[in-house]
Amino acid sequence: MKKIKNRVISKIAAVLTGKRGRRGDSVAEVLVALLIAAVALVLLASLINTTVKLTNNSKKEYDKYVNANNEVELMTGEAESTGTATLYDENGYGIASAEVDYFVNSTATGDVIAYRKHN
Q1: Has residue 89 got a pLDDT over 90?
Q2: 81 neighbors 104 (Cβ within 8 angstroms)
Q3: Domain check: are 38 and 71 in the same one?
Q4: Does residue 44 have a pLDDT over 90?
């Protein structure tokens, strides 16, 4: 028991004083370290890719929200014009019409972007 205790103490002393043998790392240890590094890089690349996709989807959804919100604001505001909207079939014949209030996006192209049935 005393021999084992002395061996352990001498090994600890060698480690603490830096006088232990320097054999280097084995090939297996280097390969395991490279494998761990490669897996970490793949996970990081996957995380970046997912983040970019989520950011792009968020931008698209936000744009949809802003456009819908703008249309709702236009619908609740005052109409800029009243007129008749006509529905046409594939042959160009008018099949239905109704009096509507037009709401025009005057800051952009001036195109009609929303309308509601005139009361």
Answers
A1: no
A2: yes
A3: yes
A4: yes
Cα-Cα-Cα-Cα dihedral of 13, 15, 19, 20, to 10°?
Answer: 120
- 99 within 8 A of 84, measured Cβ to Cβ: yes
As a whole number of angstroms, the distance between CA 13 and CA 87 comes to 94
Distance CA 86, CA 28 (A): 78
| Cβ contacts of 14 within 8 Å, gap of 6 or more | 20
How many CA atoms lie within 13 Å of 80's alpha carbon, on the beta-carbon side? Answer: 12
Placement of tokens 């890089």 in the chain: 41
Domain count of the fold of the chain: 2
Strand partners, 101: 82, 116
Question: Do both 90 and 72 map to the same domain?
Answer: no
Average pLDDT over residues 74-87: 67
Task: Compute CA distances 99 → 52, 62, 80, 115, whole Å.
Answer: 46, 33, 14, 10
**Whole-number Å distance between alpha carbons of 22 and 30:** 16
In this structure, the answer to whether residues 101 and 68 fall within a common structural domain is no
Q: Using CA atoms, how far apart are residues 4 and 8, in angstroms rounded to an integer? A: 6
